[in-house]
Write the structure tokens for this entry.
Amino acid sequence: MRYLASLLVLSILFLAPSVGVANNASNGNVYVSIEGVDGRVANNVRSLLSIYALHEQSAPGAARVRYLHELAHRDIRRAVTPYGYYQFELESSLEQRDNNWYAHYEIRLGSAIPIGTVSIEIQGEAQEDEAFRNIRNRVNLRSGSALRHSQYESAKNRIRDLAAERGYYQARFVKQELRIDLDSYLAHVELVLDSGPRYRYGRVTFNEGHLDEDLLYRFVTFEQGQPVSSNEIIALQQGMAGTDYFGRVEVQPLWAEADDDYQVPIAVNFEPNKRRYYRTGIGYGTDTGPRIRFDVNQRWVNSRGHRVNGQIQLSEILNSVGASYIIPGARPQTDQYAIRALYRDEDTSSTQSELFSVGVSWQTELTRTQRVIALDWQTERDVLDGVSRRSDFLLPSASWTRVHADNRLDVDRGFRLNFTVRGASTDLLSDTDFLQSTLSGKFVTRLSERVRILSRSEIGLTASGNFDRVPTSLRFYAGGDNSVRGYGYRSIGPRTELGDARGARHLFTGSIEADYEFRTNWRFAVFTDVGNAFDELDDPIKVGAGFGLRWQSPVGPIRIDLAHGFSEPGDTVRLHLTIGPDL
């Protein structure tokens, strides 16, 4: 008997693992189906439904599958209540067929619970702060609207952010309650914020560096004793970092060192940038041919922050050499004065000109718009209709430019607007009376995840007592890569007796383009361009259209276009190649 018992035990030990493996192998897969919800609610259900983690996976065992199925009602309740659905019905089933498990859940949602009362109370110094007077209008919680937990959390974050932005460093919620009353089926919100004291700016200190304190303090736009604003602190850091002076900038309120009057010191630590940098660029455009550019920038020449930069550009048709001496203004992050000089030599199929200019300019920023006021003396020699000419002009000018873009190198939405006016007078050392203005704009918007619309337009108007005395650099031309595609560079407009484009008094160009991203960083585009450079308003508008390919390179889009000019005799198809940002 003892021998038989030993054989039985050994048989069980040897056979048991095999039986277990066989049972696991026969458990099959789990398949889960969910009906009755869609969108974000469905995604949240799939995320929180425990059994859904086994969907299309091997079943762990019958007991485990049944246990997870029993948790479904709890899991689904946790998934739908953040969207306000506190009433729902669930029909569920679990069955095993052909060795597989099939779990099915049909959810019937009731109406989302509406918000009943919303009580927001502000305690502390913020009670007297105008920004908190209408705090309920700043948060998206309205009596009668359907509750979303995310809106409740967002409302709390907005109140916290407002307190931080207004300098209430110690602000905290002493009560934050979202009460669900299932009997009346209403959700009640009660928030009580104790703002504490409002902190004010103390002394601003800078670490020792390469620039005078006088220049550094001109970056600061607030004064000691004013309420602390996180937006102003961020603006100070970004303003300093956006200049060429600094490699790293950190602006830190020292909250722990605030005095009894709640004045907090502001410490600004920075590291100087490299004092000099060089940049070389190589490019190609069908208007200019191959080109090379070399820049040198002395980021500061003295402790007062004066700067010097120079540029040389060489191409088949345009060569230029320029230099500027730049002096920071009252707000160095946006204001500057410049003394500048430029020599330019241009030789195209229709124009030849040689220009030298010297001048001064003042650049400043007005409510996100950059304004430049300048005064330039220019002397120019050009050849028009085979006749050499010389002209001298003293040109005061003003321009306003505003650019808004989420990413200048790869724009989803944005625009660029520019308005420029300049003039001259025979009473002020100029060869003729002259007044000119230009208005240009470019807009980019996204219609869908893959489709963008790009549009641009430019209008130019000139009034002159003797337009024949106006040099070629101050006239308008149309045609080319960035004008009306399908036509040669500066080929549209009035012509001389020798057939060369002589430039016009006025200008109008417009373009509409759609591109489609068919794969990452690659777009296909179609476009239509119109425009003309003209002396008389009844001159016909030229039309061009075509298609192209765009590659989003690290330095901005590279565009290759084939365009047809419909207003030229014969079939004119031109290749246009450009490199650079959309705005």
Q: What stands out?
A: The chain has a mean pLDDT of 88.
